[in-house]
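[step 3/7] fold_predict: job queued, chain A
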Amino acid sequence: MASGSEGQVVTRFAPSPTGFLHIGGARTALFNWLYARHHGGKALLRIEDTDRKRSNQEAIDAILDGLDWLCLDYDEPPVFQSERAVRHAEVAAELLASGNAYKCYATPEELEAMREEQRAKKLPLRYDGRWRDRDPADAPDDAPYVIRLKTPTEGELVIEDRVQGRVAVKNAEIDDYILLRGDGTPTYMLAVVVDDHDMGVTHIVRGDDHLNNAFRQLPIYHAMGWKEPVYAHIPLIHGNDGAKLSKRHGAMGVDAYRDELGILPEALFNYLLRLGWGYGDQEEFTREEAIAAFTLEGVGKSPSRFDMKKLLSMNGNYIRTADNARLAELAAAEIGPQADVALLTEAMPVLKTRARDLHELADGAAFLFKTRPLAMNEAAAALLTDDAKALLGEVSARLKAEQHWTTEALEANLKAYAEEQGLGLGKLAQPLRAALTGQTTSPGIFDVLALLGREESLARIDAQALEPGK
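[step 4/7] structure written:
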């Protein structure tokens, strides 16, 4: 099952399918993918679904969907950890046979008494090794047991972490933890190491909340005589106030950024890239630029801060440069079956200049597909006073005489009219916008007239106007 050739970089993203693909997991996936692509290596995916009570197919689908939406592709089919329990047990048996592991027959009651004593003496809660050197013949017949790793007790373990630097832990601080439970199922520590080895993973890039796990996993590599991986533990993401990231900061699933916030995948890709990684002053990257530039040396040692305003600003930049036909399809899906994709595509150059997200884009385009009589929001209705309606009647008469229904001709016509009447253009545009869109915000008023066309524009104006002289 080993992946990759000698010297080839192999990374893996290994989520637990107990919920959505959260923002921190998406960044970890991105960094692993970029590092592999930068080095021409392999990016692999492993679903760590050994917790059968909490893992579910819906969560697996959400993770795969989120990765697909971000266009993070993998070089081999996903590995499902739950399907590899036999292999995990084989390695536990090898460790037992080599003397690097042993059977522990301590009962739950004995272990709880041990912990109570440690609490009373204010000692660290850890297994005391009571079966480490004991003769298995001392165990009662047919007594249940677990298999524990016989960890070194002298010296220290050192990790030259590619982000954190040199980190050392004394071996005496690592207890003989369980590899195989009494029911024969593997623990997380064993399964992760076996899978990473068998998948040929050379670089483990993950959150720094897993740094302690590395010191518990390395003894398995050493006991099995396997080459240990390169570690890179990335600082976690905090909220913009420096507190642990929560839902109020934006700790949602990737699907929520797409569906609830209207974020484009390339915007989230770029924002996550810059969240804890830097490359000079450059803020925005194409995928190709990101692959070329990404190194672990660019990852900072301090927690990054999630800033929703910055994400929305970046998203607005991507909307302004996105393909018009693509944006039209996305907006049409939000507006509904009445949306005309061809008209939206035509309108997109003026619509997308104002939007920070796809919801704003769709809201800004909705006026194109409203039916008469137009529903007015409160602010728009307030603009349509009797004086404003009289003005609209005069504007209607003037526009009916306009021969060229283009943005340029309409702008010249109405600016000339405002000047003749001694009006600021705003005094004219405000009631006109309300009559045409039912709201007080829209693209430029001349663009609105051109996009709606002569017939629909005049019908909407006349529906609100008083005839001249009345």
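[step 5/7] annotate
The mean pLDDT is 93.
The longest helix spans residues 445-464.
exit 0
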